[in-house]
Write a structure and sequence with these properties.
The complex is a heterodimer of chains A (457) and B (179).
Chain A: H1 7-31, H2 39-49, H3 54-68, H4 76-85, H5 87-130, H6 140-147, H7 150-166, H8 178-182, H9 185-190, H10 196-226, H11 231-258, H12 271-296, H13 305-336, H14 339-351, H15 353-370, H16 380-406, H17 415-436, H18 449-453
Helix pairs in contact in A: 1-5, 1-17, 4-5, 5-6, 5-7, 5-11, 5-12, 5-16, 5-17, 6-17, 7-10, 10-11, 11-12, 12-13, 12-16, 13-15, 13-16, 14-15, 15-16
Chain B: E1 5-11, H1 14-26, E2 31-35, H2 43-47, H3 54-80, H4 97-123, E3 144-149, H5 154-163, E4 168-173
Helix pairs in contact in B: 3-4
Classes of the chains: A mainly alpha (457), B alpha+beta (179).
C-alpha cells in the first residue's frame, strides 16, 4: 500500500508554484506603478472611465465611510491629520494605501486558507484519537499527510503578517503602525495585547504547539504499526486529548490575532468559533477529496463507500454549523445596530455584495441541497464537485474577513489573488503528497483498524 | 391476508436472526414480517424491503413549514399590524428578514419532525386504540419473531427454520388467530 508522489503531480505542483510566484510578483510590481507622484492622475483617469457623474460622489462616499467608521485607516487621529493636509490629499493617500495593500492581502488570504485546511484536519485527527473512533483509522494516513502542511503553512502566515509590519508599510495590520496608534485611543487601549512583540511570541507559541502535536502523533502512529502492544496508541490518545484543550484556546486567540485584528476597532466574541467552523469544514472536505483521488488510483481499496458517506455527512453537517455561527454573529450585530459593531457588516454589504452573499450560497444553500440526499453522499464525483464549491466558498469567506479592512472597495479576484492561490495551492499539493508517500497508506497497527475496515453503514 | 397459514419462528439473538433471514431469503421463501424488540441494523436490507421514502416526505413537510413561517410572519409583523423591528421600521419583509430566520428555522424543523412522525405511524398502521398486531408479547422484551408464509411446504420450512437456530416454531392459522 505504498504511494509515491508521481512525477506528473510533482511537476504540476512546481508549475503551479512558479506560475503563482509570477502572479504574486506581478501583483507587487503592478501595485507600485501607482505612487505618490501619479496617484492624482490615476484617480482622475478612473473617474473618467466610470463615465457617470456620480463616480466622484461614490468615491467620496466610500472614502468617508471607511474613514469615519471602519477599517484600515479609520482612526480619529488620522482624520485630524488629514484635515491639516486638506481633504483631497488624504483621500489620495488612502487610495494609495489600498492599492499597495492588495498584493499583501491577496498573499495573506491564500496563505491562511491553505494553512487553515491543514489545521482543520489536525483538529479532526485529534478528535478521532480522543474519541477512539472506530470508523476512521483507515483515513489516518491521509490526514497525517495533509497535516504535514501545518508547520510550513503556519510559519508562512506568521512571516507574511510580520513582514507586512516590518518590510512592508503596515499593509495588513494598522495597529502595527506607530503613527496610527499614536492618534488612536482605542488601539492604545489594546496595545498591551496588540503589539508586534507579543504578536510574534503568541504566534510562535501557537505554531510550536500545533507542530509538536503533529510531530509526536505522527511518530506514535508510525511506531504503532510495528509495535505488538497498544502503548503508542494510548500515548496518542493522551496527547490528542491534551492537544484539543490547547487547540480550542489557541485557535480562538489565533483567529483574533491573525484575522480579527485587521479591524482593530471591531470585535466579535464568537469569531474564534466561526473561523473554526470554516477550517473544520474545509479540512474535512480536503480529506474526502484526497481519499477519493487516492481511491481512484486504486490505492485505498480499504476505504469503502461508507467512509466517503461519513465524510460527506460531516461536510454537510459542518457546513450547516458554519452557517449557524455565521448567522449568530450576523444577526446579533444587525439587530442591535451599534455603530462600532455594525460597520463591519455595512462595509461588507455595501462594497462586497457579491462575495458576501455568494459565500452564503456556496457554503450553505449549495451543500444543503446537494448533500442532503443520502445516496448522493456515496457518489464520488458528486462529493468532489460539492467539495470544490465548498472550498471556493471558504476561500471567499477568508477573503471577506481580510479584504474589506485592507483594500476597502478596491477588491477584485485578479492576478494577485489567483497567483497567491496557485502559489500556496502548489506548495500544499507538493508537501501533502510528498508526506503521503513517506509511510504505508494503512495504519495497520491501530487497534481499531479491523473495525474501520469493516465499517459499513 | 394472502396466507392463511404462517410459521412463527422465534429467535433469541439478533445476529442469529440476521443469518436466518439471509438463509430463508436464499431459499426463496417469502418473509411476511419480523417483530423485534429493538431496531436491528441492516435487517431491512437483508429482508429485501424497498428503501424508505420517509426522508422525502420530511423534506416536503420542511418546505411547508418554511412557507408557513414566511407567510405567517409577513402577515403578523408586516401586513396586519406593521411593527418596528429592533428600531428598523422599514415595514418590508425582506429588510427585516434576519429577525425572522429563527422562526423560519424552528417552524421548518417543527413541521418536518412532527408530520414525519405522524406519517410514520400512519404508514405503519398504528393509531390510537388500535389492537396490537404483535403476535407474541415476548417480542417486546427479548425475543425476535419471523413470520413466514406457508404454501403447503410446512415440514420443509420447519426443518429449514430449525437449522437456522430458531428456539421455537409455531404454526399459526391466521384467520382463526383473531385476538
Amino acid at each position: 500500500m505504498e504511494y509515491k508522489i508521481s512525477n506528473r503531480l510533482k511537476m504540476s505542483a512546481i508549475v503551479l508554484i512558479v506560475l503563482g510566484l509570477l502572479g504574486v510578483g506581478y501583483g507587487f510590481m503592478d501595485s507600485h506603478k501607482v505612487n505618490e507622484d501619479n496617484i492624482s492622475e490615476y484617480l482622475a483617469n478612473e473617474a473618467h472611465h466610470g463615465d457617470h457623474g456620480t463616480a466622484d460622489a461614490h468615491v467620496e462616499d466610500a472614502h468617508s465611510d471607511s474613514h469615519a467608521e471602519s477599517t484600515s485607516h479609520a482612526t480619529e487621529g488620522h482624520e485630524d491629520e488629514a484635515h491639516d493636509g486638506g481633504h483631497e490629499m488624504s483621500h489620495e493617500e488612502h487610495v494609495l494605501h489600498q492599492i499597495h495593500n492588495r498584493p499583501w492581502a491577496a498573499l495573506y488570504v491564500a496563505a491562511f486558507f491553505f494553512f487553515m485546511i491543514a489545521l482543520g484536519v489536525l483538529a479532526f485527527y485529534a478528535i478521532q484519537y480522543a474519541a477512539q473512533a472506530g470508523w476512521s483509522p483507515v483515513l489516518f494516513r491521509v490526514m497525517e499527510g495533509i497535516t504535514a502542511y501545518v508547520l510550513p503553512g503556519a510559519v508562512i502566515v506568521l512571516l507574511i503578517a510580520v513582514a507586512s509590519g516590518t518590510i512592508g508599510h503596515y499593509n495588513l495590520f494598522v495597529w502595527m503602525d506607530p503613527d496610527v496608534v499614536e492618534h488612536d485611543k482605542l488601539i492604545q487601549g489594546k496595545s498591551s495585547y496588540l503589539n508586534l512583540t507579543s504578536f510574534i511570541i503568541r504566534g510562535v507559541i501557537f505554531i510550536s504547539g500545533y507542530a509538536l502535536y503533529r510531530h509526536f502523533s505522527r511518530k506514535f502512529s508510525l511506531a504503532q504499526d510495528k509495535a505488538d502492544d497498544n502503548k503508542n496508541f494510548k500515548r496518542n490518545f493522551r496527547i490528542s486529548a491534551a492537544f484539543l484543550v490547547f487547540y480550542i484556546y489557541t485557535e480562538s486567540m489565533m483567529s483574533w490575532d491573525w484575522i480579527m485584528s485587521v479591524d482593530p476597532h471591531w470585535f466579535s466574541t464568537l469569531f474564534g468559533w466561526y473561523v473554526f467552523a470554516s477550517m473544520f469544514v474545509s479540512g474535512i472536505t480536503v480529506i474526502a477529496m484526497i481519499s477519493i483521488y487516492l481511491k481512484s488510483k486504486g490505492l485505498l481499496e480499504f476505504v469503502n463507500d461508507s467512509h466517503i458517506h461519513d465524510l460527506a455527512k460531516f461536510m454537510f453537517g459542518i457546513s450547516i454549523f458554519w452557517t449557524y455561527l455565521w448567522f449568530s454573529q450576523f444577526m446579533l450585530i444587525w439587530y442591535s445596530n451599534i455603530p462600532e459593531e455594525v460597520t463591519y457588516f455595512v462595509t461588507r454589504i455595501e462594497d462586497y455584495k457579491l462575495p458576501f452573499f455568494g459565500m452564503l450560497a456556496m457554503n450553505f444553500i449549495f451543500p444543503l441541497l446537494l448533500l442532503m440526499n443520502s445516496d448522493y453522499k456515496r457518489i464520488n464525483w458528486f462529493v468532489i464537485m460539492a467539495g470544490i464549491v465548498i472550498l471556493c466558498g471558504h476561500y471567499i469567506d477568508v477573503f471577506n474577513m481580510i479584504m474589506p479592512a485592507t483594500v476597502g472597495d478596491r477588491w477584485f479576484i485578479g492576478i494577485p489573488e489567483i497567483g497567491s492561490i496557485l502559489l500556496f495551492g502548489g506548495l500544499f499539493l507538493l508537501i501533502v503528497f510528498t508526506a503521503l508517500g513517506k509511510a504505508p497508506l494503512l495504519a495497520k497497527g491501530n487497534p481499531f483498524i479491523k473495525e474501520s475496515e469493516h465499517f459499513h453503514y | 391476508m394472502e396466507a392463511s397459514k404462517v410459521i412463527h419462528a422465534i429467535y433469541t439473538d439478533d445476529d442469529v436472526l440476521m443469518s436466518a433471514v439471509k438463509k430463508v431469503k436464499a431459499e426463496k421463501h417469502h418473509i411476511e414480517e419480523i417483530y423485534t424488540p429493538f431496531p436491528v441494523h441492516g435487517l431491512d436490507k437483508a429482508m429485501g424491503l424497498a428503501p424508505t421514502r420517509i426522508a422525502i416526505t420530511s423534506f416536503m413537510y420542511g418546505c411547508v413549514g418554511l412557507t408557513v413561517a414566511i407567510v405567517m410572519m409577513n402577515f403578523i409583523m408586516i401586513k396586519d399590524w406593521p411593527q418596528d423591528i429592533g428600531g428598523k421600521p422599514s415595514f418590508s419583509y425582506l429588510e427585516n428578514m434576519p429577525a425572522f430566520v429563527p422562526i423560519m428555522f424552528e417552524l421548518t424543523v417543527f413541521f418536518a419532525a412532527h408530520l414525519m412522525v405522524i406519517t410514520f405511524y400512519l404508514r405503519s398502521r398504528m393509531w390510537p386504540f388500535k389492537k396490537a398486531e404483535n403476535p407474541d408479547p415476548r417480542t417486546t422484551d427479548d425475543h425476535f419473531l419471523m413470520e413466514v408464509a406457508v404454501h403447503g411446504n410446512e415440514s420443509e420450512l420447519t426443518s429449514l427454520l430449525k437449522n437456522t437456530g430458531a428456539v421455537e416454531i409455531n404454526i399459526v392459522d391466521k384467520e382463526e388467530d383473531a385476538h
